[in-house]
Amino acid sequence: MTTTQEAPVAVTDLPHTRDTVRSGSGGTPARSRRQRRAWDEAPRWQIYLPLAVYLLFTLVPFYWMLLFALRPAGTTGLLPWPLTFEHFDKVWTERSFGVFFQNSLIVGGATLVMTTLVSLAGGYALARFDFKVKRGFLLALLCSQFVPGALLLVPLFKVFAGLQMINSLGSVVIAETVFQLPLSMILLSNFIKNVPYSLEEAAWVDGCGRFRAFCAVVLPMLRPGLVAVGSFAFVHSWNHFLFALMFLSKQDLQTIPVGLNTLLSADSVDLGALAAGGVVAAVPVVIVFAFIQKYLVTGFSAGAVKG
To answer: How does 5-33 read in b/e, with b if 16+ C-beta sit within 10 Å?
Structure first.
């Protein structure tokens, strides 16, 4: 009885196996990889066309504002020529926008510092400690985001009136800080959770206390999160209108949003002055975001990750 010995078939001789071998150790066929790559690589016009439409709707209002602010009153050209800065001079001197700008800087800077410090302490407590009412506290923080700021005006006004803080920039700073704390605290707590706890333990073994270990090890790694929280608090307090309108009645204490409201009247509107005031209000925010956009994106993306 004779047996026929078949020649061994090489693995690479099989059609489906050849694609798998050429594709690498991952086991994904090369053909499917090419198809997926072709599917992912969309034509450039499909990317640039939506971006161009978005930029058109975003930048046209800014150009229109600059046009009214820089062209002489009474002209109707689509180009600001000849250039004039009379509208800026009018709002800065006659309309007291220099004082409003200074007040807004004070409110925004103080809100930034207070929000960052308090949310840093609260976020560290939420990230590193376990206590009985922790879930309830987090739920309260989340639910507070559903409460609009207008509902807080009456109770806050009564509190500040009892403390004799009406017509004081401190009342606006405290109100803005309270309004910004829940979101900032949650963001920083998630960011701190991403810092390995073993780094703090190693610092404790080396002789550092909890506060020193936090300042030396954890705090340097929180820079993107701190920039995100501080910039968000500054921009919100810079643009917020209600608290400054309700708590500040003296003209020399008003902020830029309230100052812009004074340019509107029932009889007529000075479009040139209003546009110049809008440029003055927008330029600091644009400058801030231009310098911190890298840290801002990193901070919000890292703080959104659940630890």
So the answer is: eeeeeeeeeeeeeebbeebeeeeebeeee
Q: What is the Cα–Cα distance from 192 to 214, expressed in whole angstroms?
A: 10
Query: What is the residue type of 240?
Result: H
Phi-psi region of 200 (alpha: psi -120 to 50; beta: other; left: phi over 0): alpha
The conformational region for residue 8 under phi > 0 = left, psi -120 to 50 = alpha, else beta, is beta
| Count of CB atoms situated within 10 Å of the CB of 174 | 21
* Per-residue pLDDT tens digits for 170-190: 999 999 999 899 989 988 998
Q: pLDDT digit string (tens) for 83-130?
A: 888 889 888 988 889 899 999 999 999 999 999 999 999 999 998 888
Please give the radius of gyration of the chain, using alpha carbons only, rounded to the nearest integer: 29
Residue at 89: amino acid letter = D
At position 276, the amino acid (one-letter code) is A
Cα 26 from Cα 22, distance rounded (Å): 10
d(CA 13, CA 28): 17
Three-state SS string over the chain comes to CCCCCCCCCCHHHCHHHHHHHHHCCCCCCHHHHHHHHHHHCCCHHHHHHHHHHHHHHHHHHHHHHHHHHHCCCCCCCCCCCCCCCHHHHHHHHHCCHHHHHHHHHHHHHHHHHHHHHHHHHHHHHHHHCCCCCHHHHHHHHHHHCCCCHHHHHHHHHHHHHHCCCCCCHHHHHHHHHHHHHHHHHHHHHHHHHCCCHHHHHHHHHCCCCHHHHHHHHHHHHHHHHHHHHHHHHHHHHHHCCHHHHHHCCCHHHCCHHHHHHHCECCCCECHHHHHHHHHHHHHHHHHHHHHHHHHHHHHHHHHCCCC
Cβ pair 115, 185 in contact under 8 A = no
pTM of the entire predicted model: 0.77
